[in-house]
Amino acid sequence: MSANADHSSDVSSAEARELLVDLVSIPSPTGEEREAAKRLVDFFEAHDREVWIDAVGNVRAPADDAVLLTSHIDTVPGDIPVEVEETGDDEILWGRGSVDATGPLAAMAAAAVRTGVSFVGVVGEEVDSKGSRYLVDDRAEAPAAVVNGEPSGADGITLGYRGLIAGTYVATSESGHTSRPDPNAIQHAVRWWSAVEDRFEGDEYEPVFEQVTTKPVDIEGGVSDDGLSVEATMDVQLRVPPALTVGAVREAAEAELEVGTVTWKDKVPPVMMSSRTEVARAFRVAIRKEGADPRLVRKTGTSDMNIYAGAWDCPMVTYGPGNSDLDHAPDERLPLSEFDQSVSILERVARTLTED
């Protein structure tokens, strides 16, 4: 898209807040993003922007590709009554997604309309990043820069995420009396995972971001329906720091495997961006102009930025209003003053990048 085309339009702070409250009020757990996507489409159409919902449900509003603002539409499940609480000097929006990541999503939509830059609201981030994976495959070219939307706080600039590898372990053993000393499939599963945990046990002084952390997320086991065997199935996840590759972590976990098989999926590489890119510099300047001191952030989880960094050779950061400690929490909430400030910061950043 031509950087000379003017796609900008005025968006008041009141209208940006209205979009935020509307989106938080529309339930949008993964797989049920359609109504929230339609509200975004209505917002862009009201400002004469080209916009559509693509084959997987992403909201696409292409314009000036000097920077792509993108965040996810879906939230985790959870019914938190939506209300705007009046406090002494601020208003607080309560509701699922207010932090992760409807706050960043709405802020980016408002900034994209104000400045005429490209925007995409993606689906499925909380489960398998279906939307971002489709986006990188469907776009003909990479944007010049990317700002991914996740809560960092209005003064935070997220530069790094750990990667992820997820797998399913399966083992089967002959059934027999529980007094027999031979290990059964359940014991084999537990022993393998214990060995993996020992393999990656970190030093107590080592930052979590620099460690491989291991987590079993589901386990099933017992005597089979025909009574002839004992079966065990365990779903596991390992987070991968930028110093390692997903392949190296997979090989190390497989090296501890003596009985059973493991099938790997969701192989997402880690990402660590430089603080000296033009995008990071633009954020530092914008945050200072808004009266705050910028913070550089590394997150121990994984986000769509990992997907973009693995596909596009361009500078990127992750940014958005909200306290990430409230991600998925039962008391998820966002100060509206912080939302307003983040819209202004995103607007400053987008204007800087489109003028360069």
From TrEMBL:
Keyword terms, alphabetized: Amino-acid biosynthesis, Arginine biosynthesis, Cobalt, Cytoplasm, Hydrolase, Lysine biosynthesis, Metal-binding, Zinc
GO cellular component: a single term: cytoplasm
Gene3D superfamilies with a match to the protein in the record: Zn peptidases
Catalytic activity: [amino-group carrier protein]-C-terminal-gamma-(L-lysyl)-L-glutamate + H2O = [amino-group carrier protein]-C-terminal-L-glutamate + L-lysine; [amino-group carrier protein]-C-terminal-gamma-(L-ornithyl)-L-glutamate + H2O = [amino-group carrier protein]-C-terminal-L-glutamate + L-ornithine
Residues forming the catalytic site: D74, E125
Function field: Catalyzes the release of L-lysine from [LysW]-gamma-L-lysine and the release of L-ornithine from [LysW]-L-ornithine.
Identification of the protein by name: Putative [LysW]-lysine/[LysW]-ornithine hydrolase
